[in-house]
Design a protein that fits this description.
Layout (H helix, E strand, L loop, with lengths): L1 E2 L3 E2 L7 H9 L8 H11 L7 E8 L11 E5 L10 E4 L2 H9 L4 E3 L1 H8 L7 E4 L4 H4 L3 H4 L17 H10 L1 E5 L5 E8 L4 H17 L10 E8 L4 E4 L6
Parallel strand pairs: 5-6, 5-7
Antiparallel strand pairs: 1-2, 3-9, 3-10, 4-8, 10-11
């Protein structure tokens, strides 16, 4: 199963519903991508529209800066989540951000609310001239992985486009401890074809982000699960 606290193992834990769902799965060494999606959806037992999560074990050591894998990818079918976006901008850029659908646009007032712990957003974007202002909240946003970053497209002169991409279902990925990446890629209610397309988009982006000097197997294992349900191993060869 996927332990969503940064490791992958095969221990069967959880309540009665979880154990029943796990036992009902036809357990193979690995499922094709399409069969994995079908199995996870069938084993889902929660009464809400669960998120489908992908966990990828990479052959990297994130303790080394040159092996950190991080990036952004737009899900072709969105993620099904409602994303709240905050933007550091002023004047025309502030208006562009609001027109594009930003939920919060501010300067000193946004700094003050963030430093108070009032983080009522999922993504933070900034125009380049606002980075001095953003630096005042780096100690709060940094540990949460929410600091605007030009490499991720969240520090940009085109704030309107960045807002639209975030709202449309852009997903950030980065390696955690033990070289694992976790990402929510869709909702259970999505049709299987849309889920498969989203997974392939994420995997493709992660493969493109492979460190240039890395040797050995890069994509070691992939697991798919729902929020409450058991995970299944995906045959890596079916992800290409």
């Amino acid at each position: 199963m996927v332990n969503k606290k940064n490791s992958i193992d095969k221990k069967i834990t959880g309540g009665k519903n979880y154990k029943n769902a796990y036992s009902a799965l036809p357990h193979h060494n690995a499922y094709s991508l399409e069969d994995a999606v079908e199995a996870v959806k069938k084993s889902s037992f929660a009464k809400f529209d669960e998120t489908l999560d992908l966990a990828l074990k990479l052959g990297v050591d994130p303790r080394h800066s040159d092996q950190m894998v991080r990036g952004m990818v737009s899900m072709p079918n969105g993620t099904g989540r409602s994303i709240r976006v905050a933007v550091f901008a002023k004047d025309n850029k502030a208006k562009e951000a609001l027109d594009a659908g930003a939920d919060i646009v501010g300067l000193e007032d946004l700094v003050e609310s963030i430093n108070k712990g009032e983080i009522n957003f999922d993504v933070c974007i900034a125009s380049p001239d606002m980075m001095g202002m953003v630096g005042k909240v780096a100690k709060v946003l940094g540990p949460k992985g929410m600091m605007p970053n030009p490499k991720l497209g969240t520090v940009t002169v085109n704030v309107a486009e960045a807002v639209r991409l975030a709202k449309a279902g852009q997903v950030e990925f980065r390696t955690e401890k033990a070289g694992i990446i976790h990402a929510g890629i869709a909702k259970k209610s999505f049709d299987n074809k849309a889920i498969v397309e989203n997974i392939k988009a994420l995997v493709s982006a992660i493969i493109k982000a492979k460190p240039a000097n890395l040797k050995g197997t890069y994509l070691k294992a992939v697991y798919l699960s729902s929020t409450m349900g058991p995970s299944v191993m995906v045959d890596v060869s079916t992800l290409n």
